[in-house]
Amino acid sequence: MDIVENMKEGLRSVRANLLRSILTALIVAIGITSLVGILTAIDGIEQSVNESLASLGVNTFDIKSKTNRGANNQGRTEKVYPQITLTEAFQFIEKYSVPSTKSLAADLTYVAEVKRKSKKTNPNVRVIGCNEEYAAIKALELQDGRNFSRIEIERGSQVAVLGYKIYKTLYEENEKVMGSEVTFLGAQFRVIGVLEEKGQLAEDNFDNMVLVPVIKANQMAKGRGLSYELTVGINDPTQVEYAMGEATGVMRNIRHDRIGTPDSFELEKSETLAENMATITNALRIGGFSVGFITLLGASIALMNIMLVSVTERTREVGVRKALGATPLRIRQQFVIEAIVVCLLGGIAGVILGIIIGNLMSRAMGIDTFVVPWMWMLIGMIVCIVVGLISGYYPAHKASKLDPIESLRFE
User: In this protein, which residues make up the domain named MacB-like periplasmic core (predicted)?
Assistant: First the structure.
């Protein structure tokens, strides 16, 4: 019952010194807000990126040309491998027998200007040549229209799928899009589809992109070799390693790589992307936690200072309690509980503000996911209790050592 009474006494003391308690709680709240807010925003970013990676699936891998340019390494010039050609890419799609989705894509340009009637976009539109499986692999949904057909891919038809930002720039709200024509890179294309909005933080910024059939992109390159990339999505996730081995064998055969020589191409598993993202977010999380910790350290020093002032102001009260039989342990408990109560009040406010601010930060960066970081909420409250315990112990210890007679004489 003594502990319960001490808790009640702590709450009464908080109410008796309401302004001071509120200011102290605000100091703690700011520290917790910075801690929970930053970590909530990071969790929101991580969740959004993980959803993008999940849409690709950890059961995908990329096949692309080797990127070394004959650099000199310890006196030896690295071998330059020829890029994967369009013919080789189509041969792979035809010969690869493992059940899968096979996407083919190549960047035609990053600086296209798309025009329609009197309207035009900025000259920063990315044009990608791709096959009919590209949208499925990249988890692209169509807001209007349809995807490329196989015949359009094989014939290199002059049809295009527009990103959402380009559509908003060139068309009015209720204007018909399907069947209309746009012009870029000196060629006229018939629009067959519009992609749903993905947001600017989405992979590759699909909103500012135009998709065309890969053969048409090859023709528009006018002899300039495009860098083709194959993405293979395996139907059975347990067969990824086997599928990668089969892909390596098929591609080596197509590329005529000799036995015992290195691959003339690169395979990259999508898990590598997830691992890289995890490394980045962990570094951000450590940075965010450090900022929050420094703020809380300042809050704990301020709280300790306020509690020392409180001990001085309540010297006579301590003397009365000791004269009535309160032990040093009970005196310590009273002041420590009071400090913890103030910290918890600030912590609750800080957690709520942190969640709101963190999600607003995520929303400002184009991420619509609302994150409730239960783990960081729990850690925030534990930190509040620890801060209250550490900050309140020394003043409480000082109060418990006061001489009751001298305390009663204190004015």
Answer: 21-247
What is the Cα–Cα distance from 265 to 63, expressed in whole angstroms? 7
The tens place of each residue's pLDDT in the chain, 411 residues long, gives 466 766 676 677 777 777 777 777 787 787 778 777 777 777 777 766 666 655 555 578 899 988 765 555 555 656 778 899 999 999 999 999 998 899 999 999 999 999 998 999 999 999 999 999 999 888 888 999 999 999 999 999 999 999 999 999 999 888 889 999 999 999 999 999 999 988 654 456 889 999 999 999 999 998 788 999 999 988 777 788 899 999 999 999 999 988 888 888 988 876 555 566 677 777 777 877 777 777 777 777 777 777 777 777 667 777 777 777 777 777 777 777 777 777 778 888 888 888 888 778 777 766 666 777 777 778 777 877 777 777 777 777 777 776 666 655 555
Q: Do 183 and 190 form a contact (C-beta atoms < 8 A)?
A: no
Instruction: Name the residue with tokens 């949208």.
Output: 135
3-state secondary structure of 236: coil
Selection from 312, 207, 265, 287 nearest residue 62 by Cα: 265
Structure tokens, 54: 């999940």
Pairing of strands 181-184, 125-130: unpaired
Q: How many residues does the chain have?
A: 411
Pick from 354, 303, 258: which is nearest to 21 by CA? 303
Contacts of 353 (CB under 8 A, 6+ apart): 29, 32, 33, 36, 37
DSSP calls for 35-84: HHHHHHHHHHHHHHHHHHHHHH-TTEEEEEE----S-EETTEEPPPPPPP
